[in-house]
Amino acid sequence: MGADSRSRYFSECRWGLGIAMVMRLAACRGIPQAYVVVSLGVMPRRVDAWPLDFTDIPIPSCFILTRRDSVMAIEKHSTPMLDQLETGPWPSFISGIKRLRDEHPEPRINEMTNDLLGQLEHSYETRKGYWKGGTVSVFGYGGGIIPRFSEVGKAFPKSKEFHTLRVQPPAGNHYSTGMLRQLADSWEKWGSGLVTFHGQTGNIMFIGTDTKNTQHFFDEINEYGWDLGGAGPCVRTAMSCVGAARCEMSCTNELKAHRSLVNNFVDDVHRPALPYKFKFKVSGCANDCQNAIERSDFAVLGTWRDDMKVDQAEVKHYIADKGRQYYIDNVITRCPTQALSLTDDNTLVVNNRDCVRCMHCLNVMPKALHPGDDKGVTILIGGKRTLKIGDLMGTVVVPFKKLETEEDYESLVELAETIIDFWAENGLEHERCGEMIERIGLANFLDGIGIEPDPNMLSHPRQSSYIRLDGWDEAAEAWFERQAEAGK
Amino acid sequence: MADMREPIESGCPDPWQYMHPMMRKNFGQWKYHEHPRPGVLLHVAYSGDKIWTVKAGTQRILDVFTLRKLCDIGDQFAEGYVHFTLRSNIEYMVTDEAKVQPLIDALEGAGFVVGGTQNSVAMISHTQGWLHCDIPGTDASGVVKSMMDELIDEFRNANMPNRVHITTSCCQINCGGQGDIAINIQHTKPPKINHDLVANVCERPSVVARCPVAAIRPAMVNGKPSLEVDERKCICCGACYPPCPPMQINDAEHSKLAIWVGGNHSNARGKPTFQKLVAAGIPNNPPRWPEATAIVKRILKAYKEGARDWERVNEWIERIGWPRFFEEVELPFTKYHIDTWRGARASFNSSSYIRF
What is the CATH T-level fold of the domain A239-304+374-485, as seen in this structure? Predict the structure, then answer.
C-alpha cells in the first residue's frame, strides 16, 4: 500500500473482536488480508504516522482498515423514546440494534440499523406501524419471505426494504455454536445483523435485508443445509419440543415425527397454494410444551396405553420428604379422573383404566412415576386462533397410534396427506382446517378422510335431537363389526 | 434466468448433528429430572448419566454481536452446543456439575438473565410489532422489555404456585398465543378507509369475505369502486386491514390494550383452556406501557398469594370464582365481559353455584 492509498484509509478500532472476526469482516468486505492491520495497541492514532507497509506488522491483528469514504460518520437519528428502553435490568434489544449502528465494521449495516431505529422511534412517537407487505421471493419458491417496504422510506432510505427470511430450524431447536456462527457470518454479509430464535411459527427469523440480498443470503445458507419455512397459505414450518433428547416425559420420537411430516410437504411449504395456513406441531406428552392443541392444525401428542410405571420406593421417598398431606393435596386429589389413591402404608394405587394420561402426577413425582412402555401418539386436528370464527382447540381424530416402525411413520404422513388433500379440496379461501370441520361437521370430515367415529373424539355425545337417523342400524352394525375385528 | 440457482429443497434440518453428545447418547433414555436451583435443571438418565441445563433470558431480537457472545459462552463453558426454548430462552447443557456456577456467572456477567424454569414467570412470548410487522397496533419487543424489567425477579426465582406464561400480541390475530396472562391490542373504532386507494390495492371480494360479521360491502365512493363498513355491525377486529391496507384500523388513541387471563396449553389436571378477557381500555403507551404492567403485576400478586401449589392461573380462578378474582385484582366487571360470540351460552352460569 502506497502513501497515497494510505490516506484513503483509517482505522476502526475493534478491540476485543478477535482476529478471526476481524479477518472475516475484512474478507466479506473485499479488503485484502494485507490491509487487515495488526497491532498490539501501539498504532499511532494519526493515519499519516502509520508505516507504509502494513504487512510488516506482526499478528495478532486487532483492527481493520476501511475506505475513508465508506465510513463517513452517519447522522444518527435522535431516539429519545427508544433510549428509555436501554435502562432497566433486562437485556435491551435497542442497545443491540445500536451496537450494530455504532460498532459494526460494515457501513451498510450501520446505515440500515440507523434508519431502522429512526423509523421505530417514529412509530413510538406516532403509535403507528409503517411497514407494508409486498411480493418478494427467491428463485424457485413462492413463499418463505416476509416482505417489508417502508411507507416512510424517504425519511429512512437505508432500511426502506427490510424483509425477513423465515428459515426452518432443526427439529427441537438444537444448534452447535459453530453453526450459529456460520449463520451469523452469512447474515452480516447480506442482512441487517438482526436475528430471532425463533418466531411464533417456529422459524429462525433473519430480520432485515433488501430484495437483492434476500436471494444472496438464501443461496449461501441453502448451500450448507438451511431451507426456507412457510409464509402465506401453505404448510408452515413445524415445531417440536426438546422431547426424547432431554425429557423423561417424552413418549415418542418428536424429531422424527416432526421431520417426517413437514419434510413430506416441502412443495406445499415453498409454494403457497392451500386455502390458508396449515401447521404441524409435535409435543412428546400431554404437558404440550409446543402448544400443539391450541396452535396447530395437526397436533401430535405423545401418550401411552398400558399402565403407568410406579416406583413405590421412590413414592415413599417423596412422602418422607414433603409429608403425606402434601401428596394427598397435590397429587391424589388433583387427579382429573380420581384415578389415584394412597393406602395407609403410603403405596400409590393407580386405576389405569380411569387415567387420562394428563401428566400431572408425573410432573409432581418425576422420580417415582413414568409413562408406560406401550407408547404412541394422539392426533388432534383443527386448532387455531380467533380469525375468523373464533378460537378452536384441535379435536381428537386419532385417539392412539403407534409410532415405532417405518410403516407407522409412513401411515402418519399418509394421514396428513389425506387431511390436507381433503381440506385443499373442500376448504374455502382463508378457511383453516378446523373452521372447515366446524362448517361441514366432524362426522362428515371423518367420512371424508376415511376414519371411523370413536367416542374418544368427543367430550360427550350429541345433546340435540334434531338429527335424521336413517342409517342408524347399519352404523350400529358396522360398530360391532369393527369391535369384533379389533378383538374386543 | 440462466444464472439463477435452483434451491435445494432440504426442508427441516436433521437436529442430530447439532445435539449435545450427552443428549444423543441418552436419547429416549432419560429417567427423571430435578430442579437444583432456579434457572437450572438436572436430568438423569437410566444409564446414570447426568446433564445440567442452564436457562437464560435474552432480548430475543438478537444482534450478531450478542449472538456471538452467546456462542462464546457456549464454547467456553458448555461444550459448544445450545438449545432454544419455545419462549426464545437459550439453554446450555453441561455434563460436569462444576461448570454450572461458572456458566451462570458468565451469563449474568454478560447481562443475560438466568432463570425461567419451573414455577417462574417465564419469558414473555411475543411477536414483531412496530419493528417489523405490517399491521401492528403496538410494539412487541418494547412492551416485553418494559415488563420483564419489572418482572425480572419472578423470572430469576421460582416462587409462583405454578409456571406463569405471559404473552403479548400487537393485533387481534394474537400471534403471541394463549397465556396465563395475555396483553393484546384491542381496537375500539372501525377502520378509516382511504377510498382513493382501495380499488388499486385491495381484492375487494376477499376483503368482504374476510369480515367475521359481514359488515363490509362493495360501494362506489366519489366515483371510484371502494368498500364501505356498516359501523353498527363492525366489531373493530381489524381482520380487513391485512388484505386491504387502505382500511387503516390502527389508531394512536383508539387502539387500546386489553388483558386476558387463564389460557393454558397443558393438559395436566384439566383440559387446555382459552384465555378470558378481564381488562380493556388500557392506554397503548410507549415507550414503557406502565398502565398495562401495573395491572399484570396486580394479577400476579393476587395469584401468587392466593393460588395453591400447582394451580395455574385458570385453575386458581376456577376455584375462587370470577367475582372474587375481580375483587382481588381491583378490576371493574362490565357488560363487555359477557361473551356474545358463537358458543357464548356455554360460558353462562346455569346452576345455583354462587360463592359468598
Answer: Sulfite Reductase Hemoprotein; domain 1 (3.30.413)
